Amino acid sequence: MNYDVIVVGGGHAGIESALASARIGKKTLLISMLSANIGATSCNPAIGGLAKGHLVKEIDALGGQMGKTTDKCGLQFRILNENKGPAVRGSRAQIDMDRYAIEMRTQCLNAENLTVAQDTVEKLIVINNQVEAVVTELGIEYKSKKVVLTTGTFLNGVIHIGEVQRKAGRYGEFSATHLGDQLRELGLKVGRLKTGTTARIDASSIDFSVMEIQGGDEPAIPFSFHTNRESFVNKAQLPCYVTYTNERTHEIIENNFWRAPLFTGQIAGIGPRYCPSIEDKINRFKGRERHHLFIEPQTLEATEYYINGMSTSLPPDVQLDMIHSVRGLENAKIVRYGYAIEYDYVDPTELKHSLETKKIAGLYLAGQINGTTGYEEAGAQGLMAGINSALAVDNKEPLILRRDEAYIGVLIDDLVTKGTVEPYRMFTSRAEYRLLLREDNAHLRLSKYGFELGLVSRDFMDRVENIRKEIDLAIAELNEIYITPTIENLKLLEELGQEKIKDRVSLIRIVGRKDISVVDLEKIYPKSKNLSNEIKELIIIEAKYGRYIEKQQNQIDKMENFLHIKIPDNFNFRKVSGLSNEIVEKFEKFNPPNLQSALQIQGVTPASIDILHIYIKMEERIVSKI
Fold first, then answer.
1. Residue 41: what are its φ and ψ, rounded to 5°?
2. Which of 10, 90, 587, 600 shows the greatest Cβ crowding within 10 Å of its Cβ?
3. d(C-alpha 113, C-alpha 23), whole Å
């Protein structure tokens, strides 16, 4: 059986990859070990968060599925860091994890050009460093020159619950051993990482009355730009709850360090630094009297709750004792015990920026196999791998987003140029141009690419262009209209709680002041009354941060030459005199596609880039004369 693109794995990366390829028009096969678990949320029942929300918005802007499904299956919606600047705010939603999986599976099964098969890929057929096919456990050979591996935690996965160890990719599901071993045989650099999850609690055994209640934002704001904001405000939301560990909890955990796989040497893989297990937190932060625990519903029925902040691999009896020591959980019944899982990953420096492996043509990797952690990071990579594998079928150039264009660009550039030895998580601090890369303008930044690929409709693109025109017009007028300190104007500023003006000033300066709301904007700039709240909010942000945004844009413009100068394929770095052996080895290892990417490699100096630039120009002149 022949396919244009084969996607292995039905997690967040696999779904986005398969849907993107199919929607672009390529005959696509999605192979999943268990088709019923396509779209399963293995860990927390939530999508988004700080910086992760940016990724979901970008996936959505490019035509991906995660944001749309989150809106449909969301139980609670919140904007994190709402009191801080718009660049560091992050959308987060609690989801009904059962309905989320059903919706994602439905999308895959109903997608045109996409076939779903329940099976396990045992090996790749690789001839002359070109992938040709995959062979499954059932002995079926599926042929394709484009294969995307999105294997999550299944490659040689081992689960740890205290002293108990089981080969599994997720609790109750088989581990993929043969494929993991083959990647090593093919010469890819493979390592081990670790992640984990927490216990789930029977809701009827929780005393919510002694916990802090945490509701959603009112009104709720959707993730997807395709979702109607006006109707979404009435969406019903479920509360979460907050409780804390205490001295007794910490004592129980400390007294059982000797039984913790993390400390006994049973676990060799490196875990996520920014989402550690509870035993790791207690060990690292000995002075802390307590730690937050967020008690989150897993479904609309709210019969089972997830303890966010208590990921663990401690033995079952210890898990029960430490949970019972927490206020409100004294009588908690554990439905599912927490566990840690170790798995194989491929050093992402083995990849091109397109997410194709350097050593094996046509083989793409996305998600946790590249050393990342999180649904959102996986979905972003999956989308790009699906897009680029589909483009490669027609011998088209890959879509490579720059660091100044998208968090997705930052994510992939970080991975392929720097690599990672621990599970990589996205943060706003990783983006140099985060004022430009806000959640609110993701569709303005990226929908043009989704439209060109056929992943975004003409109607939606027209809507995006109309929003852009309305913002540009308003900003231009706010810059051109001036007000003077008349009695009427001073009275208006006083009503808005704003400082008075002493001289003639432009409206843009007034709108750019602190605490200007959409209602205030209507009073200052009456023409905005006919605009949607979404557009008014964007106008306020542009007015407030316009000068800083312009400054960042100028920095980018200065780098524009570097961004456009490509490094030729198979460029011989060793012939460039003036480069140290260390720099040459790094260029050969990472094979950067352009000078900007070369500059991002750790240890590479601007002087080295200047030298490389000169040699590329010299080679271009020589070629042009031939």
1. -95, 100
2. 10
3. 7
Say yes or no: 543 and 566 in one domain. no
CATH number at residue 594: 1.10.150.570
pLDDT for position 124: 98
Mean pLDDT per block of 10 residues along the chain (626 residues) reads 96 98 98 95 94 97 98 96 88 97 98 98 97 97 98 94 92 90 95 94 98 94 92 90 97 94 85 83 88 97 97 96 98 96 95 96 98 96 98 97 93 91 90 89 97 96 95 93 88 87 88 89 90 91 84 73 77 85 84 83 76 83 65
Domain boundary among the residues 297, 312, 341 is at 341
Instruction: Note whether 136 and 80 are within 8 A (CB).
Output: no
Residue 499 lies in a domain: yes
pTM for the structure as a whole? 0.90
Given a contact cutoff of 8 angstroms between Cβ atoms, the answer to whether 146 and 366 are in contact is no
- Please name which of 27, 59, 16, 62 lies closest in space to residue 390, comparing C-alpha atoms: 27
Q: Are residues 603 and 533 in the same domain?
A: no
Is residue 55 domain-resident?
Answer: no
Question: Can you read off the two tokens belonging to residue 318?
Answer: 């210890």
If asked whether residues 232 and 335 sit together in one domain, one would say: yes
Neighbours of 422 (CB within 10 A): 15
Q: Single out the residue of 106, 91, 94 nearest to residue 38, CA to CA.
A: 106
Tokens of residue 341, six digits = 């899982």
CB 24 within 8 A of CB 455: yes
Q: How much helix, strand and coil, in percent to the nearest 5, is found in the chain?
A: 45, 20, 35
Is the distance from CB of 229 to CB of 533 less than 8 angstroms? yes
Structural domain span for residue 486 = 458-549
- For 49, 54, 65, the CA distances from 79, given in Å and listed in that order, are 8, 12, 20
Cis peptide before 276 (omega within 30 of 0): no
Which CATH number is 226's domain given? 2.40.30.260
Residue 259: name the closest of 180, 200, 321 by CA. Answer: 321
Give the DSSP letter string of 4-36. SEEEE--SHHHHHHHHHHHHHT--EEEEES-GG
Residues 205 and 318 in one domain: yes
Q: At what angle do helices 12-24 and 375-393 cross, to 10 degrees?
A: 30
Instruction: Count H helices and E strands in the chain, helices first.
Output: 22, 23
Residues 534 and 583 in one domain: no
With beta carbons less than 8 A apart as the criterion, state whether 392 and 239 touch: no
Closest CA to 364 of 5, 3, 2, 4: 5
Residue type, position 385, single letter = A
Residues 517 and 479 in one domain: yes
Radius of gyration of the chain (CA): 26
Rounded CA gap, 44 and 358, in Å?
34
Taking residue 573's Cβ as centre, other Cβ atoms within 10 Å add up to 17
Instruction: State how far the alpha carbon of 526 is from the alpha carbons of 128, 387, 522, 523, 529, in Å.
Output: 67, 43, 5, 6, 6
CATH of the domain at 494: 1.10.10.1800
Same domain, 492 and 593: no
Contact 232, 308 (CB under 8 A): no
Q: Please count the structural domains in the chain.
A: 3
Same-domain pairing of 488 and 573: no
Residue 575 in domain:
yes
Sign of the CA dihedral with 133 first, then 136, 139, and 140 last: negative
Domain boundary residue among 549, 577, 606?
Answer: 549
Query: Which segments of 38-88 are extended strands (E)?
Result: 46-48, 74-80
